[in-house]
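FORM 7B: Structural annotation worksheet

SECTION A. Query
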Amino acid sequence: MRWLEQEFAETQVIYLVIDRTSWARVNLFMVSLVHDQRSIPIYFQILTKLGSSNFKEQSEIIAQVTPLFLKYKVCVLGDREFCSVKLANWLRESGLSFCLRLKKSEFIELEQGMWLEVNQLGLKPGISLFIPGVKVTKSHNFLAFNLACKWQRSLKKSSKEGWFILTNLSSCEGAIIAYKKRFGIEEMFKDFKSGGYNMEDTKVSGARLISLILIISFAYSLSTFKGQSIKKKGGQKYVGRVKEHGRSKRRHSSFYIGLYGQSWVNFMADSRSQVEELMSINSNKNEHSLRGLRAMNLILNAS
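SECTION B. Predicted structure
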C-alpha cells in the first residue's frame, strides 16, 4: 500500500489487466497493475482445469484484488476471453470501469430488433467508430454498453484486424488508449517464461510452483523498478546498446535494463583490474572508461 501511495495519486486511474497463460498442465490466471508502460503482477491463481476461465472464476479473482484500490478509480482491461456481458455487467455494478475486447462474431442490436455481427459494421484500416448504448448478444437481456471500434493503420502497414472494445468509458479515444495498456501483461508473461526466468522449464507443481511464481513475481517487479530508475538516471545506454542496423531507439524493457544492468555492474566490478590494465595500454579509451564507471555508479545508486 505504501508503494501505491508513493506512485499513484488518488485522482489517477488504476489500470488492472486480467489475463491467463498456460504451459504443460499449468493454467495460470494473473491480475497485474499497469505502471510506467509495464505490468506489475499483484495477484495470481492456478486454475484447477485447462482452457479458458469462466465468469465465476473471473469475478471471484477480481473481487480478491479490488479492495486494495478502494481509494482509486479502477479500469479493468481484458482480451476476448474475458469479454462477456455477464462480466461487463458485474464490473459496472461493482463501480469499475472496463475495456474488454469483443469477439468479431458477437452480435449487437443497432436498432430495436435489428441485430448485426460487429464484423459487419464496415470497420476498415484507419477507421474509428463509437456506438453508445448498444445491447450485446441475442441471448442476454442486459443493459446497454458502449462499443469502441478501431482498426489501426500505420505508414508501413495496417494491423491484421480491427478492435471491438466493450466499455463503459464515454469516448472511443479513451477506450482505445486504455485498452492499449493491456499489452504489457503479454510482455510480462514472456519475461516470466522464455524471455527471462524460463518458468515453464522448471516442471515443478503444487506448493513448489506457487512458491516459484511468488519469487519470480517479486524478482520481476524489483528488476522492473530498478530498470525504470536506471532509465531515469540515463544509464540504460550502457546496458541496452542499440545493435540493430537502422534502429536509433533502444527497445529494451525496464525489466531487461534492471536485470542485466546488475549483471553488467557485477562484471565490471570483477574485471576492474583487467580494465585498468587495458586502459594503461590504450589511453585514448580512458574517456569511454570513465563514462562507463559513471554509469556503473548510477546503476548502483538507482532505487
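SECTION C. Observations
Residues 199 and 212 are 8 Å apart (CA to CA). Residues 206-233 form the longest helix (28 residues).

SECTION D. Sign-off
Analyst initials: ____
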